[in-house]
Amino acid sequence: MLTRAVAAALRRLELEGRAILVAVSGGIDSVALAHSLHAISERAQLKLSIGHVNHGLRGAESDADQAAVEALAAQLAVPVRSARVDPKAARRGGPSRDRPTLQEAARELRYAALGRMADETGASIIATAHTADDQAETVLLRLLRGSGPDGLAGIPERSRDGRIARPLLGVTRAEIERFATARGLAWREDASNASGAYARNRLRNDWLPGLARAFNPGLLRALASLAEAQRKDSEWIGSQVEREALRRFAIEQGWLRIETAGWAELPDALSRRLAREALAGCGSGRLASRRHLERMDAFLRRGAAHRTLELPGGLSLVRDRSGVRLGPIRDGSPAASRARMLNCRATVGFPPRGVH
What does pTM read for this prediction? Predict the structure, then answer.
């Protein structure tokens, strides 16, 4: 039963007795999550509130979603917060390669809005309704698009900072549908979920069911097991990356200074993750391909002086007599260079060195 699975997830994630903001879109998964958490809230000593983000992408339908979620909150007698965001506005301006996709912009704005709602309601946890089906879709999509091993870790049950929890990640959509039907729940259907224009929809509606029928009826569980095993490996490797990054990276006058002594002796799996960490810290992680990481790693392994390697997002990797540093391309505009330096200084979680 769904409530038992959710109760077990709360115990495993140590969320009993916590204030939780439930992210509810109005779809079946999030409505089922809100109902199941409400059903066990007294026993688990939960303080619940509901948060809804209206992306405004479907006009009147988006507004109807918001109204349905607010009605659900009234039915359950829990506080509700709603916020309207504009993903299209987040994509305006700048070169197209630097702009997020519409889905990326919507996701970033959604989580930012949910974070503000959690602060307003005093919730320390934001619960989202990702399911085992979402996990399988994510892992397969990343595999088909050429993801590295870290991408196969899929969606974590708990975010890195601990604030996002996903109690339904071990529950299939079929189980949720049975729960919703048995309880007579009302939910909203997003017509865009049936559109073949999106790869995830094609995977969900056509490819995954076909693979399950042809090869493995337990495909969802198999992919979930793969993601969990890869996540454990990635977490261990991530701890090694963090330790090495703290030793090798430091901010110096708006640049990221990189200590390269012994870089050639690092395993490829570690050195390329360090390269990605550096680019991500300076705001260009999403633009970097595997080829960029290979070129950056090869540059850091060589000892020749006075060289420059241009990288995505207006960055350059420079080697001179003082060492190696990552920062704005020298011939960029002053405004762009300053923005890049400020971004490096603000986002890289490494200690400053010298003047800053």
Answer: 0.80
